[in-house]
Amino acid sequence: DHRDLHSFPTRRSSDLIISTRLDCRDPSVMELKDGSLLLNFFQSNYNSSGKIIGALGVFVSRSFDGGLSWYSPKMVVLENFDWAACSAKILELKDGTLLLPLYAGRKGEKSTALVAVSRDLGRNWEEFHDVAFDSSGKIDFNEPALCALPDGRIMCILRTAGDGHFQYKSFSKDGGITWSPPERTSLQGQASSLLLTNKNILICAYRDFSPNGTSYSVSYDYGTTFEKEFIIHPFKGDRAYPELVQLDDGIFVAYYEASPDHSQILGSYIQVKPPAAPKALKASV
C-alpha cells in the first residue's frame, strides 16, 4: 500500500532515501535558495506476474542536511485524477513559489500535464493548474519539464503520445497559473530536460527517434525555434531521461541505457556556443 510511505521514519544513510514494496522511479532533486533539498518521484504498482500496471501517485521528500537524512515522503494528492506521475525536477521562482511538473489521468481519458504549486517551500501542494489537455481525445500530454526564462516567462516542454513523438511547448506569463495553448515543436523525442545556460542559451536534451539515442537541441530565442539536433550517444535500446547540469567549462549530461544483457548510467560533456555570425550580408544606404 503506497500509504505506508507516510509511516516511515526519517532515514539516515549515505545511499538509501526511500525503500518500499512498490516501484519508485524517476527521482529528481533540486536545491532551494535556503540550501534545503527537495526530491520528487512517483510510485507504480505491479500485478501478480510482476508487470507494472500503472502509476499510483507523486511524492516529495525533503532534506535539510545536504542529503544525509530525508523526511518521510509526502504524497501530492490530486483528488480529481485516478493516477499521477512525474519525471522532472521542481522549479523555484524568484518569489519562492515552487512548481512541480507532473501528469495525471482519469479512466477513459487522455493524460493531462499540470503543475502543482507550493507557496510554503514545498511543505504543502494544494494548488494545481492545467498546462495541456487534448479535449479531442487524440494526444496524451506527459512528462512536462520546466525552465524559467529571463523575461519572466516559464517554458514547459511536453512529451506526447498520439502525434508522431513530436514534443510540444507551452508558456506561462503569470508564474504557472495560466498557460498558452500547447504548440508542436520541431523536436521528435521524449523525456526532455531543459537548461538555460549562463550564456542564456536554452538546451533541450531528450530521447530521440532518428537516429536512436540521446540527443539535444539548442534555442537562441528562448524556445521560439530550435536548431538542428545533435546526438550525444547513439543507442537503440531503452535509453535517455537525461539531466543537464551547468559547469564552469561546459554542460554535463547524465542519462541511462538498458538492454537485456546490461544496464548503465552514462555521462557526457557538451559545449554549446553562441550562434555563428551571419555571412554574405549586404548593406546599402
Overview of this protein structure:
The protein is globular. It is mainly β and 285 residues long. 0% of the residues lie in helices and 53% in strands. The chain is built from no helices and 21 strands.
Radius of gyration: 19 Å
Strand content: over 45%
Low-confidence stretches: 1-13
User: How many distinct helices?
Assistant: 0
Quick take:
The chain is 0% helix and 53% strand.
List the helices and strands and how they pair.
Elements: E1 11-12, E2 23-31, E3 37-46, E4 52-63, E5 69-70, E6 74-76, E7 83-85, E8 91-92, E9 98-105, E10 112-118, E11 127-132, E12 140-148, E13 154-161, E14 166-172, E15 183-196, E16 202-209, E17 212-219, E18 230-234, E19 238-247, E20 250-259, E21 262-270
Keywords:
285 residues; disordered N terminus; mainly beta; 5-stranded antiparallel β-sheet
